[in-house]
Design goal:
The chain is of the alpha/beta class and 225 residues long. It contains 8 helices and 11 strands. The N terminus is likely disordered.
């Protein structure tokens, strides 16, 4: 597995080539990221105004609202969101211009997907405070870089969403995390907020972590470790 913090990174992919956009989103989701997708600049501005994203993968040449204007709006709003700008042009002057308007990184097309993943991970790390490389709590060790979990020295195999939920809970350092917060951090906006996916995921996560239970349900509030 590639290295890097991924499971609590929320990404907006903005790309008018729908096949490319959907392929990028699918690949990022396989890395346990929560990903939303839009195909034009106007829709991007709408989503940015509603949701908090760690990273926006932004095509520069967009319909309705140009990618440059989307980037400028993110900067104008003072958002902590990082922008990875994509372009079909490989000219240095084009890259420099994109960075000057506020993009945090630049990737010309065509690109290697492994490089896109690495750049999104790096930008995602820059949106939050530094955290220990290995999280430890209640006899559990979670390594976000290696995507490994151990309980009392025994490795626990988790599905991507189970890993994401466990990481969010462990990063909260004992604070209660609501189901809504887990949905926001570990899933994308297409998930029905009334679904029982959080409850089911927590149930399977508890089973895999074994006895005694370490995930506590706080009635009416959420979960904590």
């Amino acid at each position: 597995m590639d290295t890097g913090r991924t499971s609590d990174v929320r990404v907006l992919v903005v790309e008018d080539e729908q096949l490319l956009a959907d392929a990028v989103a699918t690949g990022l989701r396989r890395e346990a990221m929560a990903v939303d997708v839009v195909y034009d600049g106007a829709a991007a501005l709408e989503r940015i105004g509603v949701n908090d994203y760690d990273v926006v993968v932004l095509d520069r040449d967009l319909p309705l609202v140009h990618g440059d204007d989307v980037c400028r709006k993110i900067v104008e709003l003072g958002m902590p969101t990082r922008v990875l700008m994509l372009t079909a042009s490989g000219d240095v002057s084009d890259r420099v211009e994109g960075l000057e308007i506020g993009a945090d990184d630049y990737l010309p097309k065509p690109f290697a997907f492994s490089e896109l993943i690495a750049r999104v991970r790096a930008l995602g790390r820059r949106t939050s405070l530094p955290l220990p490389p290995v999280l430890e709590r209640a006899g559990i060790k979670l390594d976000p870089n290696r995507r490994e979990v151990f309980r009392e020295g025994k490795e626990v195999q988790l599905a991507p969403k189970e890993f994401a939920v466990l990481e969010v809970l462990m990063r909260s350092e004992g604070a209660v995390v609501s189901a809504e917060q887990l949905l926001e951090k570990a899933w994308d906006e297409n998930t029905d907020p009334f679904t029982n996916v959080v409850r089911v995921t927590v149930m399977t996560l508890r089973r895999k972590l074994g006895e005694p239970p370490v995930i506590v349900t706080v009635p009416g509030s959420g979960y904590r470790i």
